[in-house]
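Lab notes, practical 5.
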Amino acid sequence: MSTAFLYAATRTPFGRYNGALAEVRPDDLAAASLTALLDRTPELDPERIDDVILGNANGAGEENRNVARMALLLAGMPVTVPGSTVNRLCGSSLDATIAATRAIECGDADVVIAGGVESMTRAPWVLPKPSRAFPATDVTAVSTTLGWRLVNPAMPAAWTASLGECNERLQQAHAISRERQDAFAARSHRLATNAWAAGFYDDLVAPVPGAELTRDEAIRADSTPERLAGLKPAFRPDGTITAGNASPLNDGAAALLLGSADAAAIIGVDPLVRIAGKAAAAIEPDKFGFAPVAAADAALARAGVTWSEVGAVELNEAFAVQSLACIDAWKIDPDIVNIQGGAIAIGHPLGASGARLVGTLAKTLREGRHRWGVAAICIGVGQALAIVVENCSEGTS
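Output from the prediction step:
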């Protein structure tokens, strides 16, 4: 078995729903991230790229089913480079990353680009196809932006509740107060604001051509627990989840350059981190927010690492409540989680979030000189993915 490494990472700024990236097609967003990644590794001959694997959750529209192939062609990559698109909902780009590492580890590839894209703004409405021509009844257009659609009536109703309702149930099960959720959300905005001000994202984020956006659009520098406390519950009249302590709807793309140990000579740069362990986990669909607990524990076990050795964690903040539930279950120091801000502030364009986590984690480990890091993400319908990476730089602890 070979070993897989991360050599470079980039992403677009994440735009608000109907915001600065609303006019950019998802295939163009993905192409922008691929172009930026290649710009960061000028010695790499694109002909040497064995595959491009991108994640995407809503592929029914302008993504044209296989957005990876569309994007690499739009980015001007050689027609001999193949492309594949995977869909594991919110975990799609982390799934793409895991698929890329497996190809490298098996010796099927030396250089693979992984990542993902989502334009939640441009997700289409869909209609069920009628069983016969010219139905006499009305047909409802269904948004594909987020959550269940065209649900199979055989699926238990408890499983097909809204994502917010599922997390209200999680809140009740774990007794996580509204105050803790709002404080966690305000922290996300504060840390993201600080990270941008300190220049952390300057070499990770590349602007999208034709769009006037250079930073993540959803970050609110003035967010405080007191301001968040004034927001009304979004899913239950007496609930705790609001628009302020959950991730927003977003547009964006991210890309990672992965390769074998020998790929350093092809790419022309040294690796950033080694892919040390990875895992998928599943749970009851309505408990999806808690699924990262099992996924991260399994990934650490496969890497031969314990939580006490982990220096940084990137956990996707789908909701503050599920993030806090996972942190509590792992019994880790919250201060090592999402040091550069999380999805509540930065945004959660479904198909791109996993790759954002990995790129951010790699840089956080190197700047903090930590040896081990974990990236984990919850996934609708009761799944999660996690990956463990090891800092390749010397002098880590």
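Observations recorded by the TA: The domain at 5-123+247-390 is CATH 3.40.47.10 (Peroxisomal Thiolase; Chain A, domain 1). The first strand starts at residue 5 and ends at 11.
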